[in-house]
Design a protein that fits this description.
By secondary structure, this protein is α/β, with parallel strands linked by helices. The chain contains 11 helices and 10 strands. The model has no long low-confidence stretch (mean pLDDT 92).
């Protein structure tokens, strides 16, 4: 194929979380060199580009227009133009817009290259004081109480460190729900990472909530890190033993409903209720 007919490259470029110095030389060079920058908020990103005297054309790509603009971006890439995808802060597509564009580029055999850098989840985890060898990133948890409860119930026995994002307006409500379901686990609340009023509160969930309750208001996006389940699993029943236990419960509690029975066994062995519920249905 003639070199001039080759498609362009989509660069996924990480930008600072707050401190403008937290950007790599490679990221600045990439943003200067590409033909188009697809930005979550052009006004917000404009300040970063102005700081580094980057004159590249900015085109908006946010959650409300990404789907409609994908075909245009792909067309530009297919015509040989290079595009850099950036979000307002941190690594694009991680709880931010851009996933659909990356997926479409992959489907169209476009070359996609990451330009790594800041990420709030990893930055906060590194200073949380919690286990870092294995973790689960949950992004923003469901807002609806029932769905949130279901998600947390399924995570009760998860041994890996849990990481989630939350807005300052809902953080107290989220932590309160976590205390009810997960207990008073060790945790770290990171707020305003790399910014002027950067803060890390390391305590049990109850301690963090008590601290927040003393404040008139809470500002800045929050990243929450929660210790995984530390209960000894040696005495936990394996699948065959669990099936036997469930069958015995079904026989001895014939009048009990499936939900009630699942709740009872779930609490007894600290196993997600959904898992027990599905096993009861299968064995009934």
């Amino acid at each position: 194929m003639d070199a001039q007919n080759l498609p362009g490259t989509l660069y996924v470029v990480a930008t600072p979380l707050g401190n403008l110095e937290d950007i790599s030389f490679r990221a600045v060079n990439t943003l200067n060199r590409v033909d188009i920058i697809a930005a979550e908020d052009t006004r917000h990103s404009g300040r970063l580009l102005s700081h580094y005297n980057i004159k590249t054309r900015l085109v908006s790509c946010h959650e409300h227009n990404e789907k409609d603009k994908i075909s245009w971006f792909i067309s530009q890439l297919e015509h040989g133009l290079d595009i850099a995808l950036i979000s307002d802060a941190g690594t694009p597509t991680i709880s931010d817009p851009g996933y659909r564009l990356v997926a479409a580029a992959a489907e169209n055999k476009i070359n996609i290259i990451p330009v790594p850098g800041c990420n709030a989840a990893i930055a906060g985890l590194s200073v949380s004081g919690l286990a870092t060898d294995s973790f689960i990133f949950l992004g923003f948890l469901p807002r609806k109480p029932r769905r949130l409860t279901q998600v947390l119930e399924n995570l009760k026995s998860e041994p890996r460190t849990l990481i989630c994002y939350e807005s300052p307006h809902r953080i107290k409500k989220l932590i309160n729900t976590m205390i009810q379901i997960l207990g008073n686990r060790k945790a770290c609340l990171a707020r305003e990472i790399t910014k002027l009023h950067e803060e890390y509160i390391r305590a049990g969930l109850k301690g963090i909530l008590a601290d927040l309750e003393t404040r008139e208001n809470i500002k800045g996006e929050c990243s929450l890190f929660i210790q995984g389940c530390t209960e000894d699993k040696k005495n936990m029943p394996d699948e065959k033993e669990l099936e036997k236990i469930i069958l015995e419960h079904i026989k001895s509690n014939a009048a009990a409903g499936t939900s009630r029975l699942a709740k009872q066994i779930s609490e007894q062995f600290n196993i997600p209720r959904k898992q027990i519920y599905e096993m009861i249905l299968r064995l009934s």
